[in-house]
Write a structure and sequence with these properties.
heterodimer, A: alpha/beta, Rossmann fold, 6-stranded mixed sheet, about 35% helix, globular, B: mainly alpha, Cyclin A, domain 1, two-stranded antiparallel sheet, about 5% strand, GTPase activator activity (chain B)
Chain lengths: ~200, ~400
């Protein structure tokens, strides 16, 4: 058995309508590349990436799911083990945005109650085809108390930042638990700080 | 070389028979069909039941089915109320044949409205459109123009919506900056910054192979409304279409679209349960298939089976896709075609498919036992390059 090369293992899940760019987001994050010619995901796919957060090596095990309804019985079985879920829509596709509510319901039904969630409005580079404004994305995220970001896998906008912010939120929770056992340890809640500068560097 | 010639001769002989000996054909195709003449396309048509064993019946069957397919296109693909051009005095108008009356129009919401159906279709059409555009991206075949475009579709005569993907292209209103300079002087700058389409539309009179595949899937979904279109069907139709559309015999290649449609429909008749969520647990459903594979693995190699079980690497992580798509996403297209020669000649479909899958796992024994969970998922989801004939021979050795 290989030596353990990480401190923590986080399981993340990517969900959302078919064709919104889940696989491209994951590919950008794991391989730092973009291709528009991905075959459609059937069932579930999988990638690993190790990041460094607050001096801890965190192994992200990321599951990429098929978007179409038919695969839900297969894909929802992965919700339970997930510690973080990224819910992706396409800013050039109204329907994919409307379905966010449906996906959130899915999360409620199948995932752990304390799962960290994040909504991503992908393809934000395609300004001339945009049909969902950033404000609407922010509004729905606020309404459900979820983090939100607009991303572009193609132009590499916010992809790394999204994964790191989600991982950090999970880390907060984990260390929150540790600190409850260790009351003397001080936990710095980064969420209150200005996020932007730190996040550019958070992933090694 | 002598052996190759002998195999070609065997195929020539069998197709010269008046009544094809199907049992013998199965034996031959099981070992792979030589890439010459129309052997493969013809073998698949017979094995899938599109053509019967009686050779004299072929001409009639083919002309009937191809005519029927053309009718499907006229009735289900062309927009409501179209007129067929270039059909001389026999030109049919859907107002007579399709029952689209004067009361029907594009804004009608009545359940009987052909226009209403037309717009409802666009929902699953959008899904098909996304998938056919990303079919076999590693080869350029599907982006090439076909030598045999569907005439009534590609000659639009100025009418929009005959090409299916035109219906689902997001329409963008063009905007303009209006500058007023002094009295009555108006300068209008049209803003044109549309991003380039990855798959540029073909010119009038031409269409790409992926457009043909799109039409096949669209018609299948229209004719099987209970099932509709499910992702992954594109991966099933892809190899069949490729075989039909690269048939060296041009008289057959010209009808690749219609022939592929009926072969695909026949194959779907056998594997449709894989694509239906409510049948997942039924006999013949995908879970049942995965369980069969799992049981076979357990009986062949308890070591690997236990190792994967301890890692909680569930069969659905890899075998769901393997089985649903008949391995079409796991190997390069020529290998897939070779695998399907064997799978289609299996009288007990899909026993041999399960054996192939089992062999794929067994052949990675050492790596699997060594690997951690993540590496094993990667290995099984991205199967390493391998000589496909070695896998097939191994599968054959599994009792």
């Amino acid at each position: 058995m290989a030596k353990k090369t990480y401190d923590l293992l986080f399981k993340l899940l990517l969900i959302g309508d078919s064709g919104v760019g889940k696989t491209c987001i994951l590919f950008r994050f794991s391989d730092d590349a973009f291709t528009s010619t991905f075959i459609s995901t059937i069932g579930i796919d999988f990638k690993i990436k190790t990041v460094e957060l607050r001096g801890k090596k965190i192994k992200l095990q990321i599951w990429d799911t098929a978007g179409q309804e038919r695969f839900h019985t297969i894909t929802t079985s992965y919700y339970r083990g997930a510690m973080g879920i990224m819910l992706v829509y396409d800013i050039t596709n109204e329907k994919s945005f409307e379905n966010i509510v449906k996906w959130l319901r899915n999360i409620d039904e199948h995932a752990n109650e304390d799962v960290e969630k994040m909504i991503l409005g992908n393809k934000c580079d395609m300004t001339d085809k945009r049909v969902v404004s950033k404000e609407r994305g922010e509004a729905i995220a606020r309404e459900h108390g979820i983090r939100f970001m607009e991303t572009s896998a193609k132009s590499n906008i916010n992809i790394e930042r999204a994964f790191c912010e989600l991982a950090e939120a999970i880390l907060d929770k984990t260390s929150g638990r540790e600190s409850a056992e260790n009351p003397e340890r001080v936990v710095i809640d980064r969420r209150n700080n200005d996020k932007a500068p730190g996040y550019n560097k958070c992933c090694a | 070389m002598a052996m190759f010639k002998a195999r070609v001769k065997e195929f020539e002989d069998i197709f010269a028979q008046d009544v094809i000996d199907m049992k013998h054909l199965r034996q031959l195709t099981f070992n792979g069909v030589p890439d010459v003449q129309s052997f493969r396309a013809l073998s698949w048509k017979l094995l899938l039941g599109y053509l019967g064993p009686k050779r004299s019946s072929w001409a009639t069957t083919l002309s009937k089915k191809r005519a029927l397919y053309k009718q499907f296109i006229v009735e289900l693909v062309l927009p409501p109320g179209h007129t067929l051009n270039g059909e001389g005095d026999g030109a049919t108008d859907c107002r007579e044949s399709g029952g689209v009356g004067l009361q029907d129009h594009p804004l009608s919401e009545g359940p009987e409205s052909a226009w209403n159906t037309f717009f409802n279709d666009n929902e699953f059409l959008l899904q098909i459109d996304k998938d056919v555009r990303r079919l076999c991206p590693d080869i350029s075949f599907f982006q090439q123009p076909t030598e045999y475009p569907c005439d009534i579709v590609v000659h639009s005569e100025g009418e929009q919506g005959r090409r299916l993907h035109e219906r689902v292209v997001p329409s963008v209103l063009s905007s303009a900056n209006v500058e007023r300079k002094g009295l009555g002087m108006t300068k209008i700058n049209l803003i044109t910054k549309r991003s380039a389409e990855n798959y540029a539309a073909m010119e009038e009179g031409q269409e790409a192979h992926w457009e043909v595949v799109q039409r096949i899937l669209f018609l299948y979904a229209k004719l099987n409304p209970g099932q509709g279109y499910v992702q992954g069907m594109n991966e099933i139709v892809g190899p069949i279409y490729y075989v039909m559309a690269s048939n060296p015999d041009l008289s057959f290649r010209a009808h690749a679209e219609a022939d592929c449609f009926f072969c695909f429909t026949a194959l779907m008749g056998e594997i449709r349960d894989f694509f239906i969520k409510t049948l997942d647990d039924a006999e013949g459903g995908i879970r049942c298939m995965m369980a069969k594979l799992s049981n076979m693995l357990k009986s062949k190699d308890i070591g690997i089976y236990d190792h994967l079980r301890h890692q909680e690497l569930h069969p659905q992580y890899y075998s769901f896709r393997w089985l649903t798509l008949l391995l079409s996403q796991e190997f390069p297209l020529p290998d897939v075609v070779r695998i399907w020669d064997s799978v289609f000649s299996d009288e007990h479909r899909f026993d041999f498919l399960i054996k192939i899958c089992c062999s794929m796992i067994l052949m990675q024994r050492e790596a699997i036992l060594e690997n951690d969970f993540a590496s094993n998922v990667k290995l099984l989801q991205n199967y390493p390059p391998i000589d496909i004939n070695v896998v097939l021979t191994h599968a054959l050795s599994l009792a």
